[in-house]
Amino acid sequence: MMDFFLNFFDAVYNLIDTYSDFYFFLFLEYLLKLTAAFIITLPLALEREYHSRSLGLRTFPLLAVATCGFVLIAESFVSGNAADVNTADVRGRIMQGLMTGIGFLGGGAILKTENRILGTATAVSLWSTGTVGAAIAFNRFEIAILVAGMNFLVLRLLSPLKEKMENDFHD
């Protein structure tokens, strides 16, 4: 009876191995990258949510994870050396498509009233968040951390200065 189960599981394993492209260590690498995209963008999301912006705690991490995921999927189809012209061209087109799509999403965050334009910082922050996800997918964690950190600092430190300047201007 034990031989039956061993043979059965061996046959199932061989079937999965033959017809599947699932690689456990690649899965762990992607899990690490997607988790990093989520965690690195959380301070931005919390800052936007804290200031009652329309986009915040859910949008920013999801955008970074989705961007990272799109780049990881696209990279799995790109073969060859990174210095190869064709590979560089394909990567450039991937980035161009992502930048355009995220820009469209950010455009929806911008509101124009009679005498003000609101949401531009949130729109640009969305674009920045996409950069974080793409950088992580391309193994450029240092870029991801720097972009997310700079974006957070601009929103956190320059917002009070902007409000003070607006109040001084209207007084």
**Overall outline:** elongated
- Biggest β-sheet: strands ordered side by side in the sheet: 1-2
Q: Could you give the distance between the termini?
A: 88 Å
Total beta strands: 2
Query: What is the N-to-C succession of helices and strands?
Result: HHHHEEHH
Q: What radius of gyration results from the CA coordinates?
A: 22 Å
Largest sheet: 2 strands, antiparallel
Helix/strand/pairing category? mainly alpha
Mean pLDDT: 85
Helix content: over 70%
Task: Catalogue the unreliable spans.
Answer: none
Number of domains: 1
| Share of β-strand residues | under 5%
Question: Tags for this entry?
Answer:
mainly alpha; 2 strands; two-stranded antiparallel ribbon; 79% helix; 171 residues
Description:
There is one protein chain. With 171 residues, the chain is an all-alpha fold. The chain has one domain (21-170). 79% of the residues lie in helices and 2% in strands. The protein is built from 6 helices and 2 strands. The chain has helices at residues 2-19, 24-50, 59-77, 85-107, 120-137, 141-170, and strands at 111-112, 117-118. Strands 1-2 form a two-stranded antiparallel sheet. Strand 1 and strand 2 form a beta hairpin. Helix 2 (24-50) runs antiparallel to helix 3. The model has no long low-confidence stretch (mean pLDDT 85).
